[in-house]
Amino acid sequence: MPAGTRYRAASGGVRPLWSRSAHFYRLATLAITGLIVAVITRRPEFAGVAAPAVLLLAVRAAQRPDEIGVRARLTASAVTEGEEVRLNITVAGCDDYFVDLVMQPRFAVVPHSAGVQAGASSLPFHVSRSGRRSLGALDITLWDRWRLAEGRAIVSLPRVDCYPRSAALDSRVVLSRLPNRLGEHASRAAGEGLEFTGVREFVPGDRQRRINWPATTRRGQLQLNTFAAQRTQSVVIIADLSADVGEPGATPADLALRGAAAAAETYLKIRDRVGFVRYQRDVNWVPPGTGIRHHYRILDMMLADQGASWLPARETAITRLPKAALPPGSLVLVFTPLLDRRMVESVRNLRERGFAILVIDVLNAEPSEGDRIGALARRIWRMEQQAIRFSLRELGIPLVQWDGTASLDEPLAPYARRVMVTRR
Amino acid sequence: MRARRAAAAGVLGAACVAWSAVPLGGTGGLGGALLAAAAACAALSTLRLLLSAPFHHDEYFGLVARAGRVLARMARGASWAEGAVVAVLVLEALHRSRPWHTAVLGAALLAYLLAVHLGESRSSVAVLRPQVPLLAAGLGLLVLGAGAAMLPAATGSAAGLMAVLAMLAAVMVGCLAVSR
């Protein structure tokens, strides 16, 4: 904060601190230097050089406002990454003064213009990374009409919730064994669904409306249409945010959140029960549920504090999750860069416990090469990473790579085309 | 937009320095030093306008970028335009009397200071509209001063001093009229 300015919270009255402007001092320098040179050299033209500056400095200043009213409001309190939002600012009580507004943005807040000058203004900006973001401060400068005095004040700006931008995802991975709960996925079991599976002989008690008359005519006995049961599935999405490396805005943690947001949205659309596990310093979870409110509960969990990711995660925290958070028979989608050994062990453990697990590898950064030793270290690091992925595949854990730029449908295509067989 | 305003201030500053330095000879070592100082001050004041972008406090910068930012902050804090004005006026005073030349320099210096202010405050030229009558009056006094210097008068220091005092009186009258 510049010295001599006042910092006030949010909207309300602000008392600007008045001082002479830099323009005043420059004009005074021109006037004084011109007059001194004129007297010393006895040359009247230098007094003429000083004259315009002297006249401007001699003007009587207008009454300065002691307090101004500032109101800063956002057009939306929650946005997604990259979405433009506007900060509407109204400055009252400074009728004859020019108002200069400059946003001093905090991390990940990108203003679209340097500043504006008006009584009531709108500052467009976007947030480049998800999270609960403080917008920063608003620097207000008031100028009198002669630009000789300036009043400065700083107002703190409100916070904004920035949700991760969902990746493109239309396809869905469906398990072969689904829990006995009514839903929208056609299961292997026969039931009262809509998907035709075959015909069988009619037995007393069957519905007559389901009799297949062409088949009955061919076989000479009453034949009945059978349908697949419509079931729902439980999907648990694990986002590994323990590694925040690489370019800000495109780190593995960012990709994990975007992928998890897309998966949650896609499965909740078809009324699957979706749970969310956030793996960072601690392990936080939302038990599986359905509906739009549940969707926002998951998004709010994603926005929780993202700091202190270098602190060690609790040992085996995921494997100790209760059944409410990790129901048996659920599909587990893990968005992870596989950089944390505890996470790798947790994935192995979940597989050994019989969960149908699908790992989406979001690692998109590498150590910089640097000198010869650095190049060697990077090679060793790459081999270690390959070994981790190989060992997971050996355990029968499907593992796909997603770089964050392409659609998530591409890596998931082999598993979305047919049902994913659950093996115990 | 910022670059355009800085360019305008830079061009005016360079014009002032060049105009006050012409002709190059006859001012000795002091003239050369003043010319260098004026040019440096004008250039730094223009650079200051270009470097006035706010930066994110949370961002991490490397050592070189950090050193550059410290230098930029120092350059931003100093009064380069004032230094350029003083150096240019003293350089002009080192030359022999040439009233019309000095009057043109005075107008250019005023335009330079206004351009620096507009660049610094990111304002448009329209904000100077209330000042137009005063600027016109001031430029009238500037012409009057140059005219007074060009009038044939008795030689000697007393005559020069009287002309300066007359000019100061005219400026005082203008100030009194303006301040009412």
Instruction: Please summarize the sheet with the most strands of chain A.
Output: 6 strands, mixed
Radius of gyration of chain A: 33 Å
Residues in helices of chain B, as a percent range: over 70%
Largest protein-protein interface: A-B, 50 and 62 residues
Integer-rounded radius of gyration of chain B: 20 Å
Mean pLDDT of chain A: 85
Spans of chain B of 5+ residues with little confidence (pLDDT < 50)? Answer: none
Strand content of chain B: under 5%
Shape of chain A: elongated
Query: Which strand-content bin applies to the residues of chain A?
Result: 25-35%
Q: How many domains in all of chain B?
A: 1
Order of helices and strands of chain A: EEEHHEEEEEEEEEEEEHEEHEEHEHEHEH
| SSE topology string of chain B | HHHHHHH
- Give the N-terminus to C-terminus distance of chain A in angstroms: 61 Å
**Could you give the count of β-strands of chain A?**
22
So how many helices of chain B?
7
Give the overall average pLDDT of chain B.
Answer: 82
The share of residues in helices of chain A is 25-40%
Q: What quaternary form is this? A: heterodimer
Could you give the count of β-strands of chain B? Answer: 0
Could you explain how this protein is built, in words?
The complex is a heterodimer of chains A (424) and B (180). With 424 residues, chain A is of the alpha/beta class. Helices cover 27% and strands 33% of the residues of chain A. In chain A, strands 1, 3, 7, 9, 12 and 13 form a six-stranded mixed β-sheet that branches. In chain A, helix 1 (22-41) packs antiparallel against helix 2. Chain A is elongated. Residues 1-9 of chain A have low confidence and may be disordered. With 180 residues, chain B is mostly helical. Chain B has one domain (2-179). Chain B has helices spanning 2-21, 28-50, 63-77, 80-94, 99-121, 132-150, 157-179. The two termini of chain B are 37 Å apart. The mean pLDDT of chain B is 82. Chains A and B meet through helix 1, helix 2 and strand 7 of A and helix 4, helix 5, helix 6 and helix 7 of B.
